[in-house]
Amino acid sequence: MLRIRLQRTGKKKQAHFRVVLQEHTWKTKGKYLELLGTYDPHAKKLDVNRERIEHWISQGAQISPTVNNLMVNNGVWDRAKMESWKPKVKESSGEGADERKGEAVPPEAEASEEPAAEPGQEEEGDGPFEEPATA
């Protein structure tokens, strides 16, 4: 599948990007099929060939969310923005932490949980061993 995405160029702390057409399995810094534009984040200047991008999208190429959002922000086209990333959900430590990684427990679920039995009030068959009956 072809993707329209950014390719970083430039020196350290002097980033500059190319907008390129690549196969999705190729390395981002590797070869590309067509150069579609450039982006300078320091000057906030985006130069793209809109006709070629629309041509490749009509041929089935996918556009990355970052490139799409850059084009929307710079007024190149009037499409909806895409969600380009999600912040990671921080797992709260201590009591009430959910055992599943990355999933937060909604407040309703925490309130509906049954309280744990106190140490001196075990039910029959609660543990792995049953005490033998003494006569």
Short description:
The chain is of the alpha+beta class. Helix content is 18%, strand content 21%. It has a domain at 2-73: 2-Layer Sandwich (S16 Ribosomal Protein, Chain: A).
What does this structure look like?
This protein is α+β, with helices and mostly antiparallel strands. It has a domain at 2-73: 2-Layer Sandwich (S16 Ribosomal Protein, Chain: A). Helix content is 18%, strand content 21%. Strands 4-3-2-1-5 form a five-stranded mixed beta sheet. The termini are far apart. The model has no long low-confidence stretch (mean pLDDT 81).
Please specify the SSE layout and strand pairing:
Layout: E1 2-9, E2 16-23, E3 34-40, E4 45-48, H1 50-58, E5 62-63, H2 65-73, H3 107-112
Parallel strand pairs: 1-5
Antiparallel strand pairs: 1-2, 2-3, 3-4
Rg:
27 Å
Shape: elongated
- Order of H and E elements: EEEEHEHH
What is the number of beta strands?
A: 5
Please identify which CATH superfamily of the domain at 2-73 we are dealing with.
Ribosomal protein S16
User: What share of the residues does DSSP label as strand, in percent?
Assistant: 15-25%
CATH topology of the domain at 2-73: S16 Ribosomal Protein, Chain: A
What oligomeric state best describes the polypeptide chains here?
single chain
Q: Which class of the domain at 2-73 in CATH terms?
A: Alpha Beta
Strand line-up across the major sheet: 4-3-2-1-5
Structural class: alpha+beta
Helix percentage: 10-25%
- Our count of helices gives 3
Please identify, by name, the CATH architecture of the domain at 2-73.
Answer: 2-Layer Sandwich
Weakly predicted, low-confidence segments: none
* Major beta sheet summary: 5 strands, mixed
